[in-house]
Amino acid sequence: MVNSNILAVVESALTDTASGTWQKPVIMFVCNLLALLVLSRRIWYPHVGPKMPLPFPSLFNNVSVPAFLACMSAGHLLGAFAILSLSIDKVI
After folding, report:
1. What is the domain partition of the chain in residue ranges?
2. Cα–Cα distances in Å, from 34 out to 15, 21, 31, 84?
3. 2: closest CA among 10, 90, 72, 81?
4. What pLDDT, in 10s, does the model give residues 31-65?
């Protein structure tokens, strides 16, 4: 049996973080762009595989599709952590 207090906290946290505001997509976009700019230069083999057709290929290190997906995955993890950590004061 689940405690009703835990359900209330989880429900308030989910409704708070899932509410639609304009700041959360901007934070996610900035985190993804930052991850693409930084991690595309730190991946060991960023040019193995088909190239990703990005604008400004020299800015984004002309990464391949697997490297792009890795950077976007890391950017989403970073963005989710940033969004949840910035909204922690509303949950408590």
Report:
1. 4-91
2. 28, 21, 5, 18
3. 10
4. 999 999 999 899 898 889 998 888 888 888 889 99
> DSSP string of 14-80?
HHHHSS--SHHHHHHHHHHHHHHHHHHHHSS-TTSSSBP--SSTTTTTT-BHHHHHHHHHHHHHHHH
Quote the tokens at residue 26: 């901007």
Q: For 12, how many CA atoms within 13 A lie in the half-sphere containing its CB?
A: 11
Amino acid 89: pLDDT: 58
